[in-house]
Amino acid sequence: MDLVVAVAFVVIATRFNLQPTGSFDPWLLLVFFPLIVFVHEAGHAVAALLVGHRVLEVKIGAGPSVTAWQGRWRLVLGLFPLGGHVMAGSSDPSSYRAKRLAITAAGPAMNALMFAVAPLIDASSTTLRDFAIVNACVLISNLFPYSVRTPYGPQRTDGLGLVRTVSDSEWQLAEERSGFAVARAVLADQRGDREEVRRITDEAGAMNPRSVVLRTWLGYRAIRDQGYVSARTIFRELVDEDRTLSVAGLGQRDDVSRGIHLNNLAWCDLMLDDPALIEEALSSSAGAIDLLPGHPAIRGTRAFALILGGRPREGIDLGHAAYARTKEAPTKALQACVLSIGYARRWRFGQAARWIELARRADPSCSLLDRASGELETLRPRGDGAVAESG
After folding, report:
1. Is 141 helix (H, G, I), strand (E, B) or coil?
2. Is the pLDDT of residue 248 over 50?
3. At 150, is the pLDDT very low, low, confident or very high (cuts 50, 70, 90)?
4. Residue 26 confidence (pLDDT)
């Protein structure tokens, strides 16, 4: 994309007879980019409001950010003014595709408008000419259809957004509407408004009862609340659907979606602590790690399944790899507890106790702490029966 922008800059500079005289001041980019990004995102937000969609968040810039204003929607300002996004949507299916096209096209339309208007204000102004050129480069790069991976998931350019809005099936558009409902539910959940969460999810479920994204989030939330029976029911159903892609109206599932469903089913089986579910956990975790071999949480689940399935040495090795690549404290605590159970089953009780302590430091409320401690107390000999550790 740097190459595309560079070529675009050369082409437009040639068209406007921009000579390499040193007249362009690169410091102007510090003014140009924030203004360009602001107007671009404002175009998306205003278009969303005009077609009746709800705006949840407008972000200007990238990198470390602060919430500048929080009311009916959030304004977030990033340190680097190199991009942004508008989180907007609706659960109303009427004319949804046309409305999405209008919202997606509004941002690039603002760039095109600024490019056209700037020279008309003062044709002799080199600053306005340079502003127009930078606008054109941003416009061209933004219309190039591609997506990038970010900590928030894949982010699409407006060019790809336009292509996808035209080409997506009705099932995919319905999933997008359900995804927006999930975003609203997540924000309500963060505020602690459980009644609002229930209202949003009930409404979304009535509109699209077979939504994958909605059921996945409800299953995840059940796991978080330790409702493993209901979560297992959800993920068991999703896994069965993933294996039967010919089911009408349920769409195609990618490797990430299928891997998450398998992993979460395995985790529910393991947390229920039912020996009859160990084989399913082993099978599901093996399928998940085949699809997403580098994901630390999926490695951690597989490690837990191996340990409970009678292969603690393999589980411990994989558990160490998962723990080393995990950054979030709650997940590190879970994986430390898994390692503690593994070491206890190998009669290395000192190591098991140390991992329990690491888990307690990372997250004192970890849902596996009591189980890991109980396993250690059950297996560890007392008094004269102590066993010396080796290795």
Report:
1. helix
2. no
3. low
4. 60
SS3 311: coil
Contact assessment for residue 315 and residue 281, using Cβ atoms and an 8 Å cutoff: no
Query: What CA–CA distance (Å, rounded) separates 244 from 130?
Result: 55
For 214, 306, 312, 323, 326, the CA distances from 368, given in Å and listed in that order, are: 26, 16, 17, 15, 17
Which helix (H) or strand (E) covers residue 204, if one does? Answer: helix 194-207
Task: Please state, for a pLDDT cut of 90, what percent of the chain lies above it.
Answer: 61
Q: Which residues of 52-87 are buried (b: 16+ CB within 10 A; e: fewer)?
A: ebbbbbbbbbbeeeeeeeeeebbbbbbeebebbbbb
Residue 273's identity, in one-letter code, is D
For residues 300 and 319, is the Cβ–Cβ distance under 8 A?
yes
Asked whether the beta carbons of 355 and 336 are under 8 A apart, the reply is: yes
- For residue 43, give the H/E element and its range: helix 29-50
Q: Where are the alpha helices (DSSP H) in 208-251?
A: 212-224, 228-242
Work out the pLDDT band at 83, boundaries 50, 70, 90: confident
**Alpha-carbon radius of gyration of the chain:** 26
Instruction: For residue 85, list its beta bridge partners.
Output: 59
> What integer is the mean pLDDT of 196-210?
94
Tokens of 247: 């089911």
Taking CA atoms, 200 is separated from 57, 91, 179, in Å, by 17, 10, 11
pLDDT digits (tens, 9 = 90+) for 161-184: 999 999 999 989 999 999 999 999
CA separation for the pair 119, 89 (Å, rounded): 35
DSSP H or E stretch at residue 147 = strand 147-150
Q: Count Cβ neighbours within 10 Å for each residue of 184-221 and write b for 16 or more, e otherwise.
A: bbebbbeeeeeeebeebbeebbebbebbbbbbbbbbbb
